[in-house]
Amino acid sequence: xxxxxxxxxxxxxxxxxxxxxxxxxxxxxxxxxxxxxxxxxxxxxxxxxxxxxxxxxxxxxxxxxxxxxxxxxxxxxxxxxxxxxxxxxxxxxxxxxxxxxxxxxxxxxxxxxxxxxxxxxxxxxxxxxxxxxxxxxxxxxxxxxxxxxxxxxxxxxxxxxxxxxxxxxxxxxxxxxxxxxxxxxxxxxxxxxxxxxxxxxxxxxxxxxxxxxxxxxxxxxxxxxxxxxxxxxxxxxxxxxxxxxxxxxxxxxxxxxxxxxxxxxxxxxxxxxxxxxxxxxxxxxxxxxxxxxxxxxxxxxxxxxxxxxxxxxxxxxxxxxxxxxxxxxxxxxxxxxxxxxxxxxxxxxxxxxxxxxxxxxxxxxxxxxxx
Amino acid sequence: xxxxxxxxxxxxxxxxxxxxxxxxxxxxxxxxxxxxxxxxxxxxxxxxxxxxxxxxxxxxxxxxxxxxxxxxxxxxxxxxxxxxxxxxxxxxxxxxxxxxxxxxxxxxxxxxxxxxxxxxxxxxxxxxxxxxxxxxxxxxxxxxxxxxxxxxxxxxxxxxxxxxxxxxxxxxxxxxxxxxxxxxxxxxxxxxxxxxxxxxxxxxxxxxxxxxxxxxxxxxxxxxxxxxxxxxxxxxxxxxxxxxxxxxxxxxxxxxxxxxxxxxxxxxxxxxxxxxxxxxxxxxxxxxxxxxxxxxxxxxxxxxxxxxxxxxxxxxxxxxxxxxxxxxxxxxxxxxxxxxxxxxxxxxxxxxxxxxxxxxxxxxxxxxxxxxxxxxxxxxxxxxxxxxxxxxxxxxx
Lengths: 371, 397
What we know:
heterodimer; A: Spore Coat Polysaccharide Biosynthesis Protein SpsA, Chain A; 28 strands; B: six-stranded parallel sheet; 31 strands
C-alpha cells in the first residue's frame, strides 16, 4: 500500500477514564494482558502494508513513547518513512488553550500532513478496540470511487458516537451526530477514515479559516454541503471505542470470550506489540485458574476467575481474584480477595486485604499503590 | 576494532540422540522450557556477560537455526561493532571446500573471522547445555591465572565422573591431566565443554593440529592434551550452579522438568534474563474446566483440560477433559478432548486426536522410557503410543 499513509490520533483527553489516564493517554491503556490499545491501530495499518504512520499526541505521552519506541515492533522503523511521533509543532492561531477537536489536532501538525508523500491518508483512533482489515477497506474505497470512506461498526456502540445513514446510491445521505447507546437509523462510525490527502488538507484549511475544531461537527458538514461522496465500510467483528472506565473494563472482559478474542487476534492479521520478558508463567500446586487470560512471567499460586493478568504478577496461595484486571507487576499476598478491581501497574496487596468493587463500576487502584 | 574476548558457539552437531526431534533441525534450535530454544542459554549468557561478538558455527540442517538467530536482536546482540554471525562451512579458492571435521577444525576453518576482531581471548561454547553462567568472571580468572586455556569444570559425584571428561589438578591448582570418560576417575572435576583460550596460543595449536593427519581435530581429544603435553598453563574454572547436558531424550525431558523448580534454575531473575525470539501471541487462556498444577504455561496456549507437572510451549492447545501429565509439549502441539499424554515429549504442531493415549508412568522395567512424538505428526483417534516409543515425522499412527 505505497499510496497510503496512516495517521493515528492518540491525543484524546477522556476524563471518564479517570485515574487510568492520569499518567497516560487512552491510546496507551494496557489491554488484554500484554498489549496497549494503540497496538490494534498500528497492527491494522501494518497488516495492510501501511508502514508510514504518524501518531498525533498532545500530552501525557511518555508512556506512549516508551511503548512505541522506534516502531520496530510494527516494522515501522524504516530507512525512509516509517513511524513518526507527532507532538504539537505549532498551535493554530485560533487555538484557545488545550485543543480538543480532530481538525485542530491535525492543524497542529499541518506541516507534517502537507509533506506526506502518499496520495491517500488513513485516519484511525488510537483508542479503538478493533482489528480492522484495512486492506479490504482500501479495496472498497478504490472500487466505490468515494471521496471519503468511513469505517463503521456492525453493531450499536455504547457511549457517545456519530452515525451515518446510507442512501439508495450506496453513499452516505445523512449524518447523525452525538448519538448514545440506543439502536436506530444508520451505522455507528469507528472514526476510521480513508481520504485523499488534498481533500483532507482542504477541509483542514477551511476549518482553520472559520476557526472550527471538529471533524464530525464542522468539517464533514462542509464536505457533504459540497456534494462530497462518502462510502461506508462495515467492520464485521468486535469493535468498541474506549472512552470511559466502563468501556475499558468491558473491552478487556470481552476478551474472555473466545469469539471476541478470535476477532481481535485473527491468525492472518496478527497484533504486534513491544516484547518485554521472555519467560513462561508458572502455576503452583494449589493454583486454580478458570476463564482467565494470563500473560507470561506470572507466578500463580492462588485462585483466578474471569480475570486478566498482565506480566510479572505474583499471586500467593489462598488469594482469590475474580473479575479483575491486574496490570503489569502486581503483587497479591496470601489470602487477598479482589473482586471487580482494576489494579494499575505495580500495585501490591498485602496478605489478607479484601477489596470488592461494584460489578457496574469496578474499583480502580492507581499505579504503584500499596494496600 | 580490538576485542578482549569473542565467543565461538559450536552449533553444527545433529544431536542424533534426540532422534525424531532433530530429524529436520539442529539440536540447538530444539524448543526448551516453554519459551526457549536450547541456544538461547549460551547466547543470553554471552550478552549478559558483556560479550558482544559471537560466531555461531552451523552445519547440520541450519535453516531453522539461522532464521531463529537472525540479526541477534532478541539477545541484544545486534550491536554495531560486533554482533552474532552465522558461520557455515564454505569453499575457498582452489579448494573443494569441506565440512567441519571436528570441533577444532570448525574453529580452524573460521580463523579468518576470529582474526578480523583481533581478540586477546576466544571463548568456545557448545549449543547443547542449559545453564546460566557469567563468562566475564571466568575470563577474569583466566587472566589472573595467566592461563593459556581455562576450562569450565563442574564438581560431580565419582560415579558420574565416569561419563565425563575429567580434569586432574596438581597442588598449584592447575590442570595436570585430562581423561575422557575414565573408568577409575582420579578427580571429580568434569569438563563442561566451555573453554577460554588465549588466542595467540590457540591459533598455533590449531594450525599444528590441522597438519597432524592422525588427529581427530577435537578440543577434548587433541587440543587440550597437546597443550598439557607442551607444558602450557591450563586452569580449571569451577562453576557452581545448574548445568545440564540435553543431548538425550531422557536428559531433555529431565531438564524440562527441572524448569518447574525455581530452586534449581531461576528463570524469573531480572538480573540474568534469558532472551528468545518468539512470535507475539495473546496471553494464555484457561477455560472453565482447566486444572493446572505445578506447570509452566506460555502465551498463546488455550487450556481447558488437566495439566500437571508439565511444560507447555507457545500456542499449545489442551482441550476439555484431556490429560497432560509429566510431559513436554512443544510449540503448537494440540491435545484433543479426552486424549491422554503422560511422560512424553510432543514435537511442534503435532496433534494428538481424541481418545489417543501417549506414554505411561514408569513401571520399573528397563523397557520403560519417555515417549517421543516428533514434529508435525498426527496421532489418530484412540491410538496408543507406548512408553519409550520414538515416532518420526511422516510416520502414521
